[in-house]
Amino acid sequence: MVSYIRFLYALFLALDANFRLRRKDVSSEAKDPGLSKGYAFYCEVVQYMEHVKTHWRQTQDRSQCVAHDAVDKPDREARGTASSGVCTVDCARHNMKRTNGVGDLQLGERYMNMDYMFFKSIAGSDLQCFFISYDIACQWSIKLWQRMEEYSPTLHFEHGSRYVRFLVPKFHLPAHIEECNVHYLFNLMRGVGETDGEAPERGWSDTNGLSGATMNSGPGTRRDRLNDFWNDANFKKIVKLGTSLRDKMLNALPLMIEAAKAFVDLEKSFDSSTLATWLVMARRWEDDPKAPNPFQSAKRDKHLAQVRRELAEEAEEREAAGIEESNMVRADMHVTEFLVLGLQLEEQQRQLEHDMRAVGRHPTDKQRAAMTERSSKLRRKIVTWTEIQSLFFPNVNRLREMEDKARAKAAESQTVPGLKVYELKLWLPSQLVAFPGAWIPVDSSANILNAEYRLRVGQANEALDEIRKNLIVRTHLYSVKDRHKEGVRAHTRAMGKIAVVNERIRRLAEKYRAAWSALGRLGPVLGHMEWRSTLLALESDDLRPLPKNHFGDVTRQRATQSRNKKKSKSSQSKPAAVPVPRKPSWIWTTALSGSMATGSLGANEALRIEWAKTRAKAMRWREEVDLLEEEMRRVTQFMEWRAKWWTDQVGQRELEPGAQLEGETAYALRQADLQRRLLSSFQLLWSKANLQSKIAEARKEMMQGESDQASGDHEGGGDSTGADNEYDAESDEDESEGSEDEAVTLSTATSLVLADD
């Protein structure tokens, strides 16, 4: 397990490639060598190209995840170009380019290119903890160390005794398979705080503006121009470090307190033995990702991700055998991918509709802007998707034309409001079956219909499973509120949490009903009606929890029996009414419920997952505050050292008195003064924001909450197993490990040096 002290000195790296920054095959190194020889961000060209030539025939295994083009199609089309793009290594915390972390690509995003930049950017590092973010880290990292052994000794990196973890950026991860969404998720990785790994993506929007100016440049001119741009970008970020660190800290402190309180409140309702069991499981998984995962349930149903994987594997087998139907692939996209994108757009439409209704009739300017931006973005996605749809189903355009004509005709007689983006009909195959004129004959499109049928079954199973879990969580929250929450403030906070779960259940119910409705149209056409025995119509009354006696809560059952006996004695003279127990909702008795319907196993599993997620969130926000505080200290210490370093340069060279000596002295003193003034401005910003006292107050509030929990002022509460207690135990062991030499990571230090130059 990564120690709490050590992760403060971890190096956070983010890798990515950009194919907009390509260069045409004009000029040459001999005619345009450039001024920089590996002194800035671009690596030294001669050594790099020697590496490329030596390992040009290196092969890459096919992706074990989804079909990443960077893995399965590394030799991207690059006719007429000397460079098909660039690959970079950035600081994942501060979005800065790293020294020798940039290189040209030849035919695409090949491992040998990314490997070279990665190893070159960390050469000489004495740090012991590394978090590496890359959008295909799940594949790239598998044989990284094996490939390293084949490279030049200058690229070798002693990794055996170091803590190195590979992650996938948060925005990119949902496109991966379910296994990747657990093992490579930042939110579940101990020590990363709220880092998201998307640093390179934020910079491409600015860098892409140079693509036109550098596309026809010679190699040296292009490298120099990009080096200058990135050096300027780094320096601007350094100048704004005071503001950015202040804003991040002010944002993180209340979120840290909120997450910690939520975790403490949740733990109060569990007994110590249950918490101890869960904590052991969580820590084992953090030490060894192959251990049982506290965030996953042993589900028996095939969820959407599993069905998607099966369809992809079946398509791959058919393509390999040469028996894939021609109408299953259009524009380099398989129909499975097309349908999955359609389901995602459908879900986004539902979410947008609810959010727009939730803001009310009088939204603020900020809310209106956010909704408008979301609507525009979703509309663009749908337009792109419909362009591909017309390749699969050409006649669907006629349906859209008919819709447009009908609206235009209606507008002649009365005012018709424009269609909102969430009202746009996607015309998925399950909707097209009702319009034979817009559909290919069923006998030649059975595979397409069957693909959506299977995806819809997986979607329904997944939604139903999540509904059951959230109903269990809601029941638990009500129990906690009734037993432990006293006072208006505590009651309001508890009801707020319950409202969040209720909203989650409502959205999941809508998702299930959409899948069930689609199955109702697809089933008769395909002759598949077996789903009706397990997937029933979901009414509002069905969204109820299990009866109390299904939870296996002995204390509650005994209390209920005791109350019933008292009532029986007090009313012996009256005719007793025969209680009619309410039957459990079908969602608990269906065969799909698996272990959840049989007793407390499923309930405990759902609660354990909720506990693990809440714990992880609390840990990440505490780590984020600690990382930000360490970065503030590190910036202060570095700038003090840097100012002294510039001052010490005065008189280092033996020069005759004159203009040269005076100029160099003035330059060094100016740079030293720049560092001091910059540091003073940072300290003034942080002082005005009263950051140190706010950090201390936030930690005091967290400690107070933990001490209240540990004091046992609640009924049946267990021992504190909070994230802070775990960290405190490790901090005592590792206090001696942090050294002054580790105070500055390579990313910040090299960026500051380059900015001075």
UniProtKB/TrEMBL annotation:
<dbReference type="Pfam" id="PF18758">
    <property type="entry name" value="KDZ"/>
</dbReference>
<dbReference type="InterPro" id="IPR040521">
    <property type="entry name" value="KDZ"/>
</dbReference>
<feature type="region of interest" description="Disordered">
    <location>
        <begin position="197"/>
        <end position="218"/>
    </location>
</feature>
<feature type="compositionally biased region" description="Acidic residues">
    <location>
        <begin position="725"/>
        <end position="743"/>
    </location>
</feature>
<feature type="region of interest" description="Disordered">
    <location>
        <begin position="547"/>
        <end position="580"/>
    </location>
</feature>
<feature type="compositionally biased region" description="Basic and acidic residues">
    <location>
        <begin position="547"/>
        <end position="556"/>
    </location>
</feature>
<feature type="compositionally biased region" description="Polar residues">
    <location>
        <begin position="205"/>
        <end position="218"/>
    </location>
</feature>
<feature type="region of interest" description="Disordered">
    <location>
        <begin position="700"/>
        <end position="757"/>
    </location>
</feature>
<protein>
    <recommendedName>
        <fullName>CxC1-like cysteine cluster associated with KDZ transposases domain-containing protein</fullName>
    </recommendedName>
</protein>
